[in-house]
Amino acid sequence: MAKEKMVVLKEADLTNNCPECFNQELKLTFYQKHSYGRLFDRTTKDLTHEIKCTKCNSLIYPVTWTEDIERVYDYYRRMATPEKATIRFTTLFYILVLLLTSVIGIGAYFIIQTFI
């Protein structure tokens, strides 16, 4: 089973007011989803975000955003460029492929030798 991890792509401290406690200590964080398995590691293009008040520790959901928060979010969203969606194979994958091709090659060799 592959493990999924949300890797921090970009963090920014915002000076906007929190809709809950009206303090100016917000933190905007963008995450990118990575999957780690035994045979491959995959980087997806899925981006998620989170705005959290560092004073009252509450998550600020898009329903309660003000126009200022939306404007700042759009600005930082354009700045957060995700990594390309890629698949990287692990050494276990390459060992298994090498082992499989050698077994097929040896089997084909013995089959050819029995017909000659």
Helices and strands, with pairings:
Layout: E1 3-14, E2 26-36, E3 40-53, H1 67-79, E4 86-89, H2 91-115
Antiparallel strand pairs: 1-2, 2-3, 3-4
Give structural notes:
The chain crosses the membrane at residues 92-112. Keywords: Membrane, Transmembrane, Transmembrane helix. The protein has 116 residues and is an alpha+beta fold. The protein has one domain (3-90). The chain is built from 2 helices and 4 strands. Strands 1-2-3-4 form a 4-stranded antiparallel sheet.
Question: Which structural traits does this protein have?
Answer:
116 residues; rod-shaped; alpha+beta; four-stranded antiparallel beta sheet; 2 helices
SS field, number of helical segments:
2
Low-confidence stretches: none
> What is the total tally of β strands?
4
Note the beta-strand portion: 35-45%
Order of helices and strands: EEEHEH
What is the count of structural domains? 1
In the sheet with the most strands, the strands line up as 1-2-3-4
Structural class based on helices, strands and sheet pairing: alpha+beta
The helix content, as a percent range, equals: 25-40%
Strand count, sense and closure of the main sheet?
4 strands, antiparallel
Span from first to last CA?
46 Å
